[in-house]
Amino acid sequence: MKNLLLAGFVVLVFLFTCCTKDSENDDIPLVVEKKNTALLTKQTATWCGLSGTWGWTLNAELVPLLEPDAVCISMYGSGASLFYNKVSAEFCYRFSPGSGWPTFCINAKNQMRYDGETISDPVIIKANCVYAIDSFLVLPVIANSGFKLKIAGETIEIKTRTEFFQDGGDGEYYICAYLVEDSVMGIQKGQTGIVQHDNVLRASAHNTTWGEQITSPSTAGSIFEYTFITKTDTTWNLEKLKVFTVIWKKTGSTSYEFVNAHKH
Hints:
There is one protein chain. By secondary structure, this protein is an alpha+beta fold. The protein has a domain at 34-141 and 174-212 and 237-261. It contains five helices and 16 strands. The protein has helices spanning 2-7, 49-52, 54-66, 86-95, 122-137, and strands at residues 38-44, 70-76, 103-106, 109-110, 113-114, 117-118, 143-152, 155-164, 172-181, 184-187, 194-197, 200-204, 212-213, 223-231, 241-250, 256-261. The strands form five sheets. Strands 9, 12, 13, 15 and 16 form a five-stranded antiparallel beta sheet that branches. Strands 2-1-3-4 form a four-stranded mixed beta sheet, sandwiched between helices. Strands 7-8-14 form a three-stranded antiparallel beta sheet, with no helix packed on it. Strand 3 and strand 4 form a beta hairpin. Helix 3 packs parallel to helix 5. The longest helix is centred in the middle third of the chain and has 16 residues, at 122-137. The chain starts with a helix and ends with a strand.
C-alpha cells in the first residue's frame, strides 16, 4: 500500500468478512486471521450530481486501490435516494453527522476534513484515505472474526466466530453481519442513463444496526460464536450478494467505534 501511495500519489487514493453464496463444509473449522482490514464507506445519493461526477470517479479509483486492505461499501442514507435503507441512514448519521453527499470515511472517520474545513478535492481525499488505512494496518490486532454463509430458499444463515488477540479493555463489543450487493442498476444524477452501482449496502442481518453484543470476556484468547438468520428480499440479485461482518466497540450510550474488518 505504501508503494502504491508513493507510485500513485498524483492519481491518489466493523471487522468485515466476505464469502460466496455457496454453503461451506460444516466440517471445516472457522479460522480467524490475526490481521487488520479497514472499512471504506461512501455516503452517497442517486439524486446528487456531485455523487455522480467527482464522487463517482473518486470511488471508482479508490475501490480497486484499497480493496486488498479494505472492505468497501456505498451507503445510500438519504430518504429521497434509490437504494435507501435505515442502516445506511444510521451509518451516515453516526459516521459524518451534518456532512453532505458524497462523503468518504475510513473506519467510520470522515476523510473530507483538512485543517478543520470540509474539502471536496479528490486528490486530498484520496491521500487522506490511503494514509488512514496505512496507519490502521500497522496497529496491533485487537480482534477479528470469520464466518460461514448458507442461503437456502429465502433464508440467509451466517455463522460467525470472533476471537480476541489481546485484551479489549473497558467497553461493550458487538458483532454484526451486513448484506451488500454488486451490479445494482439504477439512475445516478451526473451519469447518463441507467448505470451500475456496486457495493450497495442493503441491510443488517440483525434487527439492529450494530448487531449482537459479544458476551464472552474481551480478553486475549477469548472466543465468541453467534449465528445470524435473516431473510432475502425479492429485489436482490442473490448471485451478486456479498456478506460482511464487522466488530464495533460501544464507547457511549449511542456511539460505536470500528474495531476491525476481514474478508476472504
